[in-house]
Recover the amino acids of this structure.
């Protein structure tokens, strides 16, 4: 723990609120401690919202600076972590709106660039390379489809379905009504289901339509042809 | 096929499961951790501490306001030939994105500085995307990052043009600026008077940190942070 935090009598495990207040009061280390506590989850949200690591880092930095500078305006209506998510998501959405990132092409980049830094849980429980390949392909298809959604729908799905936050908390993060969050999630899922071909009978996201031409005769003789060989 | 049809509970559950499986499990990469730690350190250094002396703050305000006035005057002069000053700032987002994809921008910033080797065809100015109001650059909420990048270009150009400012323009700009923006504690960095949502505001270009630079939009009179964006440097 940074020395300045300990010196201010915050104890060994200060609450998020105590750290934020200490930061507002001039503790130069408090905000860093607070951010370090939540940075992995904020990174996850930024990465899935922005679609690629470079834009996620930019969006997260925008949010970090904004949170650092606006800490004094925090009124305590929500949890500090909810407020942090709100600032970061808004920074990401601002960036998306301004830059019109070409999401469809760049979104799956993290699979290659950061794939080898993936979770130890995944590495420990799935050893079969074939299974890993199927998982990666399925993940890629989901992320491709996610990239096609409107920004607000994607942000809602990232927070609710990927990160598992309750709808009420996400409503505070996105500064909208709970009904709006539910609607965005519902419409986003419906679009994903179409994109992933889940609505077709037997639809399977693991097996995309290969785009082969129409089949020939459905039943073919197993016997050798009696016709003369072609010239 | 409609993509708005309501899913059955089973279909919805399946989509949710796929999304959950695609969540990010990895921690924040070390390079991003390092970058953000550096930003935090810089923020700590730039912030006026709680023990700041009143006299120092007042003198700094006067100094910053003076800087602001000179900047506004330079903008008036440069506005005449802004088409030449801001050649590639109006590049399309796709162009900027392509530049970043090509590896020219390690920070991935879309609001990066123009490439001097850009073809002539990309030098056309689009008045609908950037303009000056009463000699002050306008920054729009909907295109914040793009507009800030253009102001940055303007700032880099004004250094060479400042010596050539006509006295009349200097006086006029001084009068406009003092009339519309009250001083505040802006913090460290280069300042630029702008209009944001039809209100005067100040862009504070913070000292660059490696290959990035934070730009804050501050409220006149209070110095309150309104928005912030990160630009690629160089």
């Amino acid at each position: 723990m940074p020395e300045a935090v300990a010196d201010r009598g915050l104890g060994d495990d200060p609450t998020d609120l105590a750290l934020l207040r200490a930061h507002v009061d001039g503790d130069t280390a408090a905000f860093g401690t607070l951010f370090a506590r939540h940075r992995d989850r904020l990174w996850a949200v930024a990465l899935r919202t922005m679609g690629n690591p470079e834009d996620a880092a930019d969006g997260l930095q925008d949010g970090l600076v904004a949170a650092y500078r606006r800490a004094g305006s925090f009124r305590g209506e929500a949890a500090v972590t909810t407020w942090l998510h709100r600032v970061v998501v808004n920074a990401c959405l601002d960036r998306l709106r301004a830059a019109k990132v070409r999401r469809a092409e760049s979104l799956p980049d993290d699979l290659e660039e950061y794939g080898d830094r993936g979770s130890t849980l995944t590495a420990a429980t799935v050893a079969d390379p074939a299974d890993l390949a199927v998982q990666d392909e399925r993940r890629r298809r989901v992320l491709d489809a996610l990239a096609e959604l409107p920004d607000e729908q994607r942000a809602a799905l990232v927070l609710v379905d990927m990160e598992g936050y309750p709808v009420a908390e996400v409503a505070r993060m996105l500064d909208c009504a709970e009904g709006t969050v539910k609607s965005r999630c519902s419409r986003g899922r419906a679009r994903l289901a179409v994109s992933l071909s889940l609505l077709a009978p037997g639809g399977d996201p693991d097996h995309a339509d290969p785009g082969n031409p129409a089949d020939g005769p459905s039943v073919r003789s197993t016997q050798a042809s009696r016709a003369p060989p072609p010239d | 096929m409609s993509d708005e049809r309501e899913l059955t509970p089973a279909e919805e559950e399946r989509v949710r499961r796929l999304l959950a499986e695609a969540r990010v499990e990895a921690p924040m990469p070390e390079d991003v951790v390092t970058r953000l730690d550096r930003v935090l350190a810089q923020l700590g250094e730039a912030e006026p501490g709680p023990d700041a002396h009143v006299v120092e703050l007042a003198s700094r305000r006067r100094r910053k306001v003076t800087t602001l006035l000179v900047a506004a005057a330079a903008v008036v002069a440069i506005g005449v030939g802004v088409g030449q000053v801001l050649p590639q700032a109006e590049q399309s987002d796709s162009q900027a994105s392509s530049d970043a994809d090509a590896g020219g921008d390690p920070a991935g910033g879309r609001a990066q500085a123009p490439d001097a080797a850009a073809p002539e065809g990309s030098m056309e100015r689009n008045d609908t995307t950037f303009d000056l109001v009463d000699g002050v650059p306008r920054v729009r909420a909907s295109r914040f990052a793009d507009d800030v990048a253009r102001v940055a270009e303007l700032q880099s150009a004004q250094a060479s043009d400042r010596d050539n400012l006509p006295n009349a323009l200097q006086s006029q700009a001084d009068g406009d600026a003092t009339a519309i923006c009250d001083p505040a504690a802006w913090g460290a960095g280069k300042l630029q008077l702008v209009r944001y949502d039809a209100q005067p505001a100040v862009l504070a270009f913070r000292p660059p940190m490696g290959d990035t630079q934070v730009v804050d939009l501050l409220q006149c009179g209070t110095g309150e942070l309104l928005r912030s964006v990160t630009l690629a440097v160089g």
User: Anything to note?
Assistant: The mean pLDDT of chain A is 78. Chain A is about 65% helix and 0% strand. Chain A touches chain B through 70 residues (CB under 8 Å). Residues 30-50 of chain A form the longest helix (21 residues).
